[in-house]
Each structure stands twice: as structure tokens, then as C-alpha cells.
Amino acid sequence: MSNLDSQIRERTRLRRRDVIALTAIMTMVFVVLAMTGGIGIWEAIAAVAAVAALGFIYYLLVTAPVRREPPAIIAPAARPVENPLHLADTIVARLPTPVLVIGPGGRIEQANPAARDFLGLGAEGAQLSAVLRQPKVLESISGALRGEAQKPVEYSTFAPMESHIRAHVIPLKTGLEGPFPWRALLVMSDETSIKRADRMRADFLANASHELRTPLASLAGFIETLRGHAREDIGARDRFLSIMQDQTERMRRLIDDLLSLSRVEMDEHLPPSDEVDVAAIARDTVDVLGPIAREKGVMIEADADERAIVTGQRDQLIEVAQNLVENAIKYSVSGSRVVIEVRGGLTREQAEHSSHSLGNQAARVTIAVPSGSASGQAKRRFAVIRVRDAGVGIERRHLPRLSERFYRVDGQKSGPKEGTGLGLAIVKHIVSRHRGGFVVESAQGEGSVFSVFLPMPVEKPAIQEAGPARS
User: Fold this and answer.
1) How many CA atoms lie within 13 A of 42 on its CB side?
2) The Histidine kinase domain covers which part of the protein (predicted)?
3) How far apart are CA 206 and CA 387, in angstroms?
4) Structural domain count of the chain
5) Facing residues of 448 across strands?
6) What residues are paired with 111 via a beta bridge?
7) Which of residues 25 and 208 earns the better pLDDT score?
8) 90 and 106: one domain?
9) Of the listed ranges 258-262, 273-277, 287-291, 359-363, the one predicted with least confidence
10) C-alpha dist (Å) from residue 116 to 5, 97, 121, 124, 188
11) Whether the Cβ atoms of residue 145 and residue 13 lie closer than 8 Å to each other
12) Cα–Cα distance, 142 to 130 (Å, whole number)
């Protein structure tokens, strides 16, 4: 009986330690989330109160004296009471914010699914330094493992995608005996959207003020002329009003493109997850831009597979197709043909190098490439949107700069339908967000081919229902 008593006491001590440690961890997590704006202050207070109540109830249960004699009648419970520790683990697992518990030597002892996805962890037990190469964060964790309070650490990465992270490191006293009584709680907050918004606001003001200066100056000059000596000149007034309308339309296109580019760049680090049929988008693009092509005497047609499903956002992919086809129509000569082709089920190499040949003199440049490891890309399949025109072509020296903001090729910078120089920049950023590729091939006198290839959905194997999280 003494041996049994000692086992019960030891088990009770361990349970007390576990519930105190877990309640402290949960409280810290909700406090950090409230401080960073992840959840509201009242939600955090309610969550902390619920966790504290559950921890207190469980503490009373595990410290209650054990009755040796069994009850006369054991009635089955109508509904089993969920383990409070399991409930707390479930809450942490459902949090969208990466949360990790780091043990001695920088070993990852616990990580919620958001942290595993964010860091690409295969399993717990790995060294944090192997997946997070940020010296300031690792130094802060080393200090927390010694029981020292730490300040938030900010760091940025720019490959494969730009991201800005704020890491909160909190020392946790476990109550364990031995040389390593401390653990480090690492909570990572993604502030990319906030940083991008600040930068986009400054860029938008700078770009808009620069590009709008010329049409605004033209409008001011024409208005002054119409109010002066051309007041009674009907011919001059009609001519000036027509030019003013063109300049106003140019400003409208410029503002629309700047807003579109800002929206795309804001979400570029967040890949889309919907399934989109790009073959249907190609056919819709032909229907929408057909009148513009006929007005210029250009024939436009779609050569698309029956279905080509990609992982993407439909509105943005429509913008890609329409930008490429509209450019092709704009720079094609009357009587020529523009073709938008869609092919699916291609490897990356096939998608990148299977464009229509324009001859040995054609120049080729890759503007964007799919992100991810080479082994992962080798297994993926891609769908290609390819737009070919029979225009004058583009000189080799211009190709690398086509996707720069406001860059326009010489000889294409004037006229009432002058572009804003933002269309291909928008295409590049949309393709980057979709983790796809963008290739341009052109030969002077023969035309150009713009190819965009996008990842197709991956068939996921059936996943068995996971058991309860470890405490």
C-alpha cells in the first residue's frame, strides 16, 4: 500500500505541475495576441478567465484525496467531461498565429500547426536554428532559456517572398528540477501586410504625383487657352476638348492601374487557394476584347484545352489575360492575328520552354519563376497561358525591363491610347503571388510571345483523423 501511495502522490505532483505550466503558457499566448492585435482585449480576458477556471477545476480534481473503497454503484456518465489539458492544447492548435515551445539547446518541444506550416517543420524535436536562421531571434531564445526577459524582435526576409515578422520570446518557468528549469515561448506575428501598406502608400503618392504632372499641366494649359483668346474659336475649342478628354482618360487609366498594382503587391505574400479554369478565362477574354480587335482590324482567337484548372484567384487571372491580349492588340498591325493559347498538365520545363518558336534570332527572357524547391517543382504540373502577336516585335535590350513600373518601349510612348507602363508590372506581381512563371520571347519583324505558367492543384492523399495533441 505504501508503494501505491507514493505512486499516487507522484502522479498528483506531476499533474499539478502540468496544469500550472499549461495555464501559464495559455495566459501568455492570449496576452501576446492581445498586445499584437491578433484578438480583442475583451476576447483575451474572456479566454484567460476560461483557461484559469479550467485549470483551477482540474487542480482541485487532481489534488482531491483518493478514496480507496469503490462506490457501491457506478453510474455511467451521461456525457464525458473533456480533459482541460486536451482542451487547452486544442485551443493552441487552432490559433492562426505560430506558437512554439523551445527547450534546452534550442530544440523545438511543441509547435502548433500554424508554426509547422510557417517554418516548414516535418516534426517536433528539430533544432530551431535549422529552420529559422535569424541570429537575433536565436539570441533572444537563449536569453529566455536562462530566465531573462526579452524584447520583441523584428526581422525581414526577401526570398522566396518578402515577409516582415515580429517575434515575441517569453521565458517560462516549468518547475522541473535540474539544470534546465526554463523554457522559451516563441510567438510569431506576421506584419507583412502592415509594412507593405506603409510602403505602398508612399510609393503611390510618389508615382501618382510624378505621372499625373504632365496630363494635369496639359489640362491647365488648354483650360487657360479656352478661357483666353480661343474663347470664340469653335474649331480650336472642339480640338482642345478632344485632347483634354484623352488626357483625362489617361489619368483615369493611370489611377486604376496604380490602385490595382497596390492591391496586388499588398497580398503578394499570401498565395490564393481557389481553383480556376484558365481555359474559360481565355475564351471570355476573346469575347470581351473582340470589339477592340475588330476596330483595329486585328483577328483574335482562343486555342484552349477543354479544361485547365489552376490554383489561383479568378479576378486577378482575368486581369493577366486581358493585359497580355490588350497589349498584343495594341502593338499589332492591321490584318494580323493574335492568339491566346492555353495548355495544361505540363512539367515546369515543358511550360517554360514549349512556346512557339520565333526563329533563331528571337530573344528570350524569364521575368518570374515559380517559388519552391527543385524537387517539389519537378513533381508539379502547370497550365500555360500563352499570347502571341504578329507585331513589330521588341528589341532584345528592352526585354529585361518590360515589367518595370512606367517603362515603355521607344516608339510606343505617344498617341491617344498610350499605355500607363504598369500593365506588365501588374502581370508580374500577380504571377509571383500565384507562385508561377512569366517568360517573354520576341523577334523584331516577327512578333512576340508572352507566356504565363501557373501551378495546377496537387491531389492530396487521404489524411487520417489526428489523435489528441500532446500535453
Assistant:
1) 0
2) 207-458
3) 32
4) 4
5) 389, 442
6) 100
7) 25
8) no
9) 359-363
10) 41, 11, 5, 9, 12
11) no
12) 15
The answer to whether 76 and 57 have CB atoms below 8 angstroms apart is no
CB 104 within 8 A of CB 142: no
- Whether 343 is in a domain gets the answer yes
Cβ contact 191:227 at 8 Å: no
262 with 366, same domain? no
CA distance 403 to 421: 8
Give me 81's grid cell: 467531461
Cell 497550365, located at residue: 383
- pLDDT tens, 227-271? 887 777 788 888 888 888 888 887 888 888 878 887 887 777 788
Q: How confident is the model at residue 58 (pLDDT cuts 50, 70, 90)?
A: low
Measured distance CA(323)–CA(325) in Å, rounded:
6
Residue 366 and residue 21: Cα distance in Å, rounded? 53
Compute the mean pLDDT over every residue in the chain, rounded to the nearest whole number: 78
Query: 158 has which bridge partners?
Result: none
Region 295-306 average pLDDT: 87
User: Looking at the DSSP assignment, which residues form a beta bridge with residue 309?
Assistant: 277
Distance in angstroms (rounded) separating the CA atoms of residues 103 and 153: 19
Query: Distance (Å, rounded) from C-alpha 284 to C-alpha 280?
Result: 6
What is the structure's pLDDT at 450? 92
Q: Which amino acid is at 146?
A: R
Domain co-membership, 304 together with 419: yes
Nearest-angstrom CA–CA distance, 130 and 119: 10
DSSP H or E stretch at residue 101: strand 99-102
**Exposure b/e, 54-84, CB count within 10 A at least 16 = b:** bbeebbeeeeeeeeeeeeeeeeeeeeeeeeb
pLDDT at 414 over 50: no
Can you give the CATH number for the domain in which 196 is found?
1.10.287.130
Give the residue among 434, 438, 450, 337 at the shortest CA–CA distance from 386: 450
Cell numbers representing residue 106 in the block: 534550442
Q: Are residues 261 and 369 in the same domain?
A: no
User: Cell digits for 270?
Assistant: 499570401
| CATH number where 105 lies | 3.30.450.20
- The CA R_g of the chain, rounded to the nearest whole Å, is 31
Average of per-residue pLDDT across 352-367: 72
Q: Alpha carbon of 163 to those of 300, 351, 450: distances in Å?
A: 40, 28, 29
Alpha-helical segments (H) within 297-397: 314-330, 348-353, 374-379
**Structural domain contains residue 469:** no
* Omega before 160 within 30 of 0, i.e. cis: yes
- Would you say residue 467 lies in a domain? no
Q: What is the mean pLDDT of residues 89-98?
A: 80
The pLDDT value recorded for residue 180 is 81
